[in-house]
């Protein structure tokens, strides 16, 4: 299964200045719960922001970074690919695979994804990075867990 996991504001904003524009501890916990032990695929900016925050790749996950720069350096155990199809070929047997950002990776990954894990952040925020619109003709909501300021929503691709 190929999945996308993301938190988006009401205006589809997902970031500003390569940072998440809100702090929701329950969403970090949800992200960790869903992705631990899995393969995660991300763009270089997302990877760099994780390194800046954690000082290491995400623990207990196989990390794949999309980057066309053949000289791009990553820590041992992290894999670099120049396209989504090549990354997916590499981890085809890994069970559920998660795309975790950023915006251009999400936009490209939508055609490959079977499931969307969306944290709807119930606010409009100023940002410079946005998630693509979710086409309800393609995606069907299969679960929703509403909290005070956000909702955990899962969509599956319609058959």
What does this structure look like?
- This protein has 159 residues and is α/β, with parallel strands linked by helices.
- Helices cover 23% and strands 33% of the residues.
- Helix 2 links the parallel strand 3 (39-43) and strand 4.
- The longest helix is centred in the N-terminal third of the chain and has 11 residues, at 25-35.
- 31% of the residues are buried.
- The model has no long low-confidence stretch (mean pLDDT 96).
* Overall pLDDT metric: 96
Tell me the Rg in angstroms: 15 Å
Structural class: alpha/beta
Note the run of SSEs as H and E: EEHEHEEHEHEEEE
Do you know the CATH topology? Answer: Dihydrofolate Reductase, subunit A
Tell me how many strands there are. 10
CATH class: Alpha Beta
Describe the protein's topology:
Blueprint: E1 2-9, E2 13-15, H1 25-35, E3 39-43, H2 44-54, E4 62-66, E5 79-81, H3 84-90, E6 97-99, H4 103-109, E7 115-121, E8 129-130, E9 139-146, E10 150-157
Could you list some keywords that capture this structure?
4 helices; Dihydrofolate Reductase, subunit A; alpha/beta; 159 residues; two-stranded antiparallel sheet; eight-stranded mixed sheet
Summarize it.
The longest helix is centred in the N-terminal third of the chain and has 11 residues. 23% of the residues lie in helices and 33% in strands. With 159 residues, it is an alpha/beta fold.
């Amino acid at each position: 299964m190929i999945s996308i996991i993301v938190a988006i504001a009401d205006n589809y904003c997902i970031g500003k200045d390569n940072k998440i524009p809100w702090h929701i501890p329950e969403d970090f916990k949800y992200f960790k719960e869903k992705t631990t032990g899995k393969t995660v695929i991300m763009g270089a900016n997302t990877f760099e922001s994780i390194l800046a925050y954690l000082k290491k790749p995400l623990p207990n996950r196989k990390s794949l970074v999309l980057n066309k720069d053949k000289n791009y350096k990553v820590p041992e155990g992290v894999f670099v690919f120049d396209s989504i199809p090549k990354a997916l070929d590499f981890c085809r047997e890994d069970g559920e695979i998660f795309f975790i950002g950023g915006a251009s990776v999400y936009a490209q990954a939508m055609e490959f994804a079977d499931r969307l894990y969306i944290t709807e952040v119930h606010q409009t925020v100023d940002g410079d990075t946005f998630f693509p619109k979710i086409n309800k003709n393609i995606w069907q909501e299969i679960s929703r867990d509403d909290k005070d300021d956000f909702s955990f929503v899962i969509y599956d691709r319609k058959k």
